Amino acid sequence: MNDPKIISTKKLAQQIGTSEEEIISAAKSGDLGRIFPKLSQSQAQQIKKLLSDEASAKKLLATPEAQAIIRKLSKK
Known about the structure:
By secondary structure, this protein is mainly alpha-helical. It has 5 helices and no strands. The longest helix has 12 residues, at about 40-50. About 5% of the residues are buried.
């Protein structure tokens, strides 16, 4: 990964104590609130800030890592 601010779902799952599948399921359903309680306040604020900024969200979604997750979600 080129951007140190972007981590894989597997690494995020390890950091917040949940499964990668739970993160993907929450993202697919649009209910990220399900995993927010497992995040630190700082992590939750960073994610909310990123998602609320359209330019940042588009940049994130354009990364190879995000595209791989999108392809994975599209298959389910």
